[in-house]
Amino acid sequence: DITERKRLEEEHVRLEAHLRQQQKLEAIGTLAGGVAHEINNPITGIMNYAQLIADAAPPESQTADYAGEIVRETERVATIVRNLLQFARQEKQVHSPARIADILEQTLSLLRAVFRRDQIALSVDVPAELPSLKCRSQQIQQVLMNLLTNARDALNEKYPGYHPDKTIQVSCCPIEQEGRPWLSVTVADRGNGIPAEIRDRIFDPFFTTKPRDQGTGLGLSISHGIVKDHGGALHFETEPGQGTRFHLDLPVAGDGMRDA
What we know:
The chain is α+β, with helices and mostly antiparallel strands and 260 residues long. The protein is built from five helices and seven strands. Helix 1 runs antiparallel to helix 2, helix 2 packs across helix 5 and helix 4 packs antiparallel against helix 5. It is globular and about 80 Å long.
Protein backbone atom coordinates (compact mmCIF):
# COMPACT_ATOMS: atom_id res chain seq x y z
CA ASP A 1 0.00 0.00 0.00
CA ILE A 2 2.80 2.41 0.87
CA THR A 3 4.60 1.61 -2.39
CA GLU A 4 1.42 2.10 -4.43
CA ARG A 5 0.63 5.38 -2.65
CA LYS A 6 4.16 6.63 -3.33
CA ARG A 7 3.84 5.66 -6.99
CA LEU A 8 0.53 7.50 -7.29
CA GLU A 9 1.98 10.59 -5.62
CA GLU A 10 4.94 10.57 -8.01
CA GLU A 11 2.58 10.17 -10.98
CA HIS A 12 0.47 13.07 -9.69
CA VAL A 13 3.55 15.29 -9.42
CA ARG A 14 4.65 14.29 -12.92
CA LEU A 15 1.23 15.07 -14.40
CA GLU A 16 1.09 18.44 -12.64
CA ALA A 17 4.52 19.34 -14.02
CA HIS A 18 3.41 18.29 -17.50
CA LEU A 19 0.25 20.40 -17.22
CA ARG A 20 2.24 23.45 -16.10
CA GLN A 21 4.59 22.99 -19.05
CA GLN A 22 1.67 22.78 -21.49
CA GLN A 23 0.03 25.90 -20.05
CA LYS A 24 3.32 27.75 -20.26
CA LEU A 25 3.82 26.73 -23.89
CA GLU A 26 0.27 27.74 -24.82
CA ALA A 27 0.60 31.17 -23.20
CA ILE A 28 3.97 31.89 -24.79
CA GLY A 29 2.70 30.50 -28.11
CA THR A 30 -0.25 32.92 -28.15
CA LEU A 31 2.08 35.86 -27.48
CA ALA A 32 4.64 34.67 -30.03
CA GLY A 33 1.99 34.24 -32.71
CA GLY A 34 0.69 37.78 -32.20
CA VAL A 35 4.18 39.28 -32.32
CA ALA A 36 5.10 37.27 -35.41
CA HIS A 37 2.04 38.43 -37.33
CA GLU A 38 2.75 42.08 -36.44
CA ILE A 39 6.35 41.77 -37.64
CA ASN A 40 5.58 39.83 -40.81
CA ASN A 41 4.02 42.66 -42.88
CA PRO A 42 6.75 45.31 -42.43
CA ILE A 43 9.48 42.72 -42.98
CA THR A 44 7.84 41.67 -46.26
CA GLY A 45 7.68 45.32 -47.32
CA ILE A 46 11.35 45.93 -46.54
CA MET A 47 12.34 42.80 -48.43
CA ASN A 48 10.31 43.75 -51.51
CA TYR A 49 11.67 47.30 -51.68
CA ALA A 50 15.23 46.05 -51.21
CA GLN A 51 14.72 43.60 -54.06
CA LEU A 52 13.41 46.42 -56.28
CA ILE A 53 16.53 48.47 -55.51
CA ALA A 54 18.76 45.49 -56.24
CA ASP A 55 17.02 44.86 -59.57
CA ALA A 56 17.34 48.53 -60.62
CA ALA A 57 20.96 48.98 -59.53
CA PRO A 58 23.87 48.35 -61.93
CA PRO A 59 25.30 44.85 -61.48
CA GLU A 60 28.34 44.63 -59.20
CA SER A 61 27.65 48.15 -57.88
CA GLN A 62 27.85 49.11 -54.22
CA THR A 63 24.12 49.85 -54.25
CA ALA A 64 23.37 46.33 -55.48
CA ASP A 65 25.62 44.90 -52.74
CA TYR A 66 23.88 46.93 -50.03
CA ALA A 67 20.43 45.97 -51.30
CA GLY A 68 21.44 42.33 -51.45
CA GLU A 69 22.63 42.49 -47.84
CA ILE A 70 19.27 44.00 -46.79
CA VAL A 71 17.45 41.15 -48.54
CA ARG A 72 19.63 38.54 -46.80
CA GLU A 73 19.14 40.11 -43.37
CA THR A 74 15.37 40.45 -43.80
CA GLU A 75 15.22 36.81 -44.91
CA ARG A 76 16.96 35.93 -41.65
CA VAL A 77 14.33 37.88 -39.70
CA ALA A 78 11.61 36.19 -41.77
CA THR A 79 13.00 32.81 -40.71
CA ILE A 80 12.73 33.83 -37.06
CA VAL A 81 9.13 34.91 -37.71
CA ARG A 82 8.35 31.52 -39.27
CA ASN A 83 9.85 29.84 -36.21
CA LEU A 84 7.61 31.91 -33.97
CA LEU A 85 4.55 30.99 -36.03
CA GLN A 86 5.44 27.32 -35.88
CA PHE A 87 5.94 27.64 -32.14
CA ALA A 88 2.45 29.19 -31.89
CA ARG A 89 1.00 26.27 -33.93
CA GLN A 90 -0.46 28.66 -36.50
CA GLU A 91 1.17 27.41 -39.69
CA LYS A 92 -0.72 24.71 -41.56
CA GLN A 93 1.41 22.22 -43.44
CA VAL A 94 0.66 18.81 -44.90
CA HIS A 95 2.43 15.60 -44.00
CA SER A 96 4.07 13.86 -46.97
CA PRO A 97 6.30 10.78 -47.33
CA ALA A 98 10.00 11.45 -46.75
CA ARG A 99 13.17 9.49 -46.06
CA ILE A 100 15.01 10.40 -42.89
CA ALA A 101 18.31 9.98 -44.77
CA ASP A 102 17.26 12.68 -47.26
CA ILE A 103 16.13 15.07 -44.52
CA LEU A 104 19.39 14.56 -42.65
CA GLU A 105 21.48 15.07 -45.79
CA GLN A 106 19.67 18.33 -46.57
CA THR A 107 20.39 19.49 -43.03
CA LEU A 108 24.04 18.46 -43.07
CA SER A 109 24.59 20.17 -46.43
CA LEU A 110 24.02 23.46 -44.58
CA LEU A 111 26.33 22.60 -41.70
CA ARG A 112 29.33 20.69 -43.08
CA ALA A 113 31.29 23.84 -43.90
CA VAL A 114 30.66 25.17 -40.38
CA PHE A 115 31.77 21.88 -38.83
CA ARG A 116 34.97 21.90 -40.91
CA ARG A 117 35.74 25.44 -39.83
CA ASP A 118 35.23 24.47 -36.17
CA GLN A 119 37.34 21.30 -36.66
CA ILE A 120 34.40 19.08 -35.71
CA ALA A 121 34.38 15.53 -37.06
CA LEU A 122 31.04 14.10 -38.18
CA SER A 123 30.03 10.45 -38.00
CA VAL A 124 26.78 9.42 -39.71
CA ASP A 125 25.19 5.98 -39.48
CA VAL A 126 21.78 6.02 -41.21
CA PRO A 127 20.97 2.79 -43.09
CA ALA A 128 19.49 3.27 -46.56
CA GLU A 129 16.80 0.62 -46.06
CA LEU A 130 14.97 2.45 -43.25
CA PRO A 131 11.22 2.93 -43.82
CA SER A 132 9.89 6.32 -44.85
CA LEU A 133 8.18 8.76 -42.54
CA LYS A 134 5.02 10.71 -43.23
CA CYS A 135 5.98 14.09 -41.89
CA ARG A 136 6.51 17.80 -42.47
CA SER A 137 10.07 17.38 -43.68
CA GLN A 138 11.03 21.05 -43.30
CA GLN A 139 9.98 20.99 -39.66
CA ILE A 140 11.92 17.78 -38.97
CA GLN A 141 14.89 19.39 -40.69
CA GLN A 142 14.49 22.34 -38.33
CA VAL A 143 14.59 20.00 -35.32
CA LEU A 144 17.72 18.26 -36.60
CA MET A 145 19.35 21.61 -37.33
CA ASN A 146 18.71 22.71 -33.75
CA LEU A 147 20.09 19.50 -32.25
CA LEU A 148 23.19 19.61 -34.44
CA THR A 149 23.98 23.26 -33.77
CA ASN A 150 23.49 22.71 -30.03
CA ALA A 151 25.95 19.81 -30.23
CA ARG A 152 28.37 22.04 -32.11
CA ASP A 153 28.09 24.74 -29.44
CA ALA A 154 28.70 22.18 -26.69
CA LEU A 155 31.85 20.91 -28.41
CA ASN A 156 33.18 24.39 -29.11
CA GLU A 157 32.69 25.29 -25.46
CA LYS A 158 34.68 22.26 -24.28
CA TYR A 159 37.25 22.20 -27.09
CA PRO A 160 37.97 25.69 -28.53
CA GLY A 161 40.43 24.13 -30.98
CA TYR A 162 41.10 20.71 -32.46
CA HIS A 163 40.63 17.64 -30.28
CA PRO A 164 40.18 13.97 -31.27
CA ASP A 165 36.97 13.81 -29.20
CA LYS A 166 35.47 16.84 -30.95
CA THR A 167 32.94 14.66 -32.76
CA ILE A 168 29.22 14.65 -33.46
CA GLN A 169 27.67 11.24 -34.04
CA VAL A 170 24.35 10.94 -35.86
CA SER A 171 22.62 7.58 -36.09
CA CYS A 172 19.17 6.21 -36.83
CA CYS A 173 17.63 2.84 -36.10
CA PRO A 174 14.17 1.25 -36.17
CA ILE A 175 12.45 0.81 -32.81
CA GLU A 176 9.03 -0.35 -31.67
CA GLN A 177 6.58 1.54 -29.48
CA GLU A 178 3.38 -0.18 -28.35
CA GLY A 179 3.63 -2.62 -31.23
CA ARG A 180 4.12 0.08 -33.89
CA PRO A 181 7.25 0.80 -35.97
CA TRP A 182 9.15 3.98 -35.17
CA LEU A 183 12.48 5.50 -36.13
CA SER A 184 14.88 6.86 -33.52
CA VAL A 185 17.45 9.46 -34.57
CA THR A 186 20.27 10.11 -32.11
CA VAL A 187 22.54 13.18 -32.12
CA ALA A 188 25.43 12.65 -29.71
CA ASP A 189 28.26 14.97 -28.69
CA ARG A 190 31.21 14.63 -26.31
CA GLY A 191 30.79 18.02 -24.70
CA ASN A 192 30.45 18.90 -21.03
CA GLY A 193 26.92 17.50 -20.67
CA ILE A 194 23.88 19.30 -19.28
CA PRO A 195 24.15 20.40 -15.62
CA ALA A 196 21.69 18.65 -13.31
CA GLU A 197 20.16 21.91 -12.09
CA ILE A 198 18.88 22.92 -15.55
CA ARG A 199 17.85 19.58 -17.05
CA ASP A 200 14.19 20.12 -16.16
CA ARG A 201 14.17 23.51 -17.88
CA ILE A 202 15.88 22.98 -21.23
CA PHE A 203 12.56 22.61 -23.09
CA ASP A 204 11.12 25.75 -21.47
CA PRO A 205 10.53 28.62 -23.92
CA PHE A 206 13.13 31.39 -23.75
CA PHE A 207 15.36 29.43 -21.36
CA THR A 208 18.96 29.47 -22.53
CA THR A 209 22.44 29.34 -21.05
CA LYS A 210 23.91 31.08 -24.10
CA PRO A 211 24.68 34.80 -24.32
CA ARG A 212 21.84 36.94 -25.66
CA ASP A 213 23.56 37.41 -29.02
CA GLN A 214 23.93 33.65 -29.50
CA GLY A 215 20.58 32.16 -28.48
CA THR A 216 16.94 33.03 -27.89
CA GLY A 217 15.96 29.98 -25.84
CA LEU A 218 13.31 29.06 -28.41
CA GLY A 219 15.17 26.31 -30.27
CA LEU A 220 14.47 23.30 -28.07
CA SER A 221 10.98 24.43 -27.05
CA ILE A 222 10.02 24.83 -30.73
CA SER A 223 11.60 21.48 -31.53
CA HIS A 224 9.70 19.84 -28.67
CA GLY A 225 6.43 21.26 -30.03
CA ILE A 226 7.18 20.13 -33.59
CA VAL A 227 7.99 16.58 -32.49
CA LYS A 228 4.88 16.41 -30.32
CA ASP A 229 2.73 17.54 -33.27
CA HIS A 230 4.22 14.64 -35.23
CA GLY A 231 3.15 12.19 -32.53
CA GLY A 232 6.78 11.62 -31.55
CA ALA A 233 9.07 12.22 -28.59
CA LEU A 234 12.21 14.27 -27.99
CA HIS A 235 14.32 13.26 -24.99
CA PHE A 236 17.94 13.17 -23.91
CA GLU A 237 20.60 11.41 -21.87
CA THR A 238 23.54 13.33 -20.46
CA GLU A 239 26.61 12.65 -18.36
CA PRO A 240 28.60 15.43 -16.67
CA GLY A 241 31.90 15.92 -18.46
CA GLN A 242 31.13 13.15 -20.97
CA GLY A 243 28.51 14.52 -23.34
CA THR A 244 24.85 14.43 -24.31
CA ARG A 245 22.68 12.26 -26.54
CA PHE A 246 19.41 13.65 -27.87
CA HIS A 247 16.91 11.12 -29.22
CA LEU A 248 14.31 12.12 -31.80
CA ASP A 249 11.71 9.34 -31.95
CA LEU A 250 9.11 9.45 -34.73
CA PRO A 251 6.36 6.99 -35.71
CA VAL A 252 6.59 5.45 -39.17
CA ALA A 253 3.81 5.95 -41.74
CA GLY A 254 2.03 8.67 -39.82
CA ASP A 255 1.00 6.64 -36.75
CA GLY A 256 -0.33 9.02 -34.16
CA MET A 257 0.20 12.13 -36.29
CA ARG A 258 -2.17 15.00 -36.88
CA ASP A 259 -2.47 16.67 -40.28
CA ALA A 260 -3.39 20.03 -38.74
